[in-house]
Write a structure and sequence with these properties.
single chain, about 130 residues, mainly alpha, two-stranded antiparallel ribbon, 2 strands, about 5% strand, coiled coil, cell projection
Length: about 130
């Protein structure tokens, strides 16, 4: 009888109900639906993970960009300070050179004054000897 019903496209399942679809096909369809639902859940979970990753990557990229700009600013500041230090050093060296030159001029002047003083002293000594 089941073969006659099957020939007509009717089937009897395990609890003896009349079905239009073959019970093995119905089981496979149900199993496929369950697998599809699991696949959709996995896909949704993956999408959430990807979105979380994208958001975190965006935040990290923004933080990196801020730090990059900060580093560039510090580098420019450091370069500026280095140039100022070099300029100050050149000015100090120029001032030292001016002071050395002035010192040398004063030494020469002292020598000349000492020689003149010595010369005047000799003249005074000779003058006192004559009188």
């Amino acid at each position: 009888m089941e073969d006659e019903l099957a020939a007509q496209g009717l089937f009897i399942d395990e609890i003896h109900r009349l079905r239009i679809l073959d019970p093995s096909l119905a089981d496979q369809t149900h199993k496929l639906k369950t697998e599809c639902d699991q696949f959709l859940q996995t896909t949704k979970s993956f999408d959430k993970t990807v979105d979380t990753f994208k958001n975190e990557a965006s935040r990290t990229a923004a933080a990196v960009e801020i730090e990059k700009k900060r580093a560039i600013g510090y580098r420019l500041l450091l370069d500026s300070l280095r140039k100022k230090k070099e300029q100050d050093q050149r000015q100090m060296m120029a001032e030292v050179d001016r002071k050395r030159l002035k010192l040398e001029q004063l030494r020469v002047e002292i020598e000349m004054l000492q020689k003149a003083d010595h010369f005047h002293q000799e003249i005074l000594d000779q003058f006192q000897m004559l009188h």
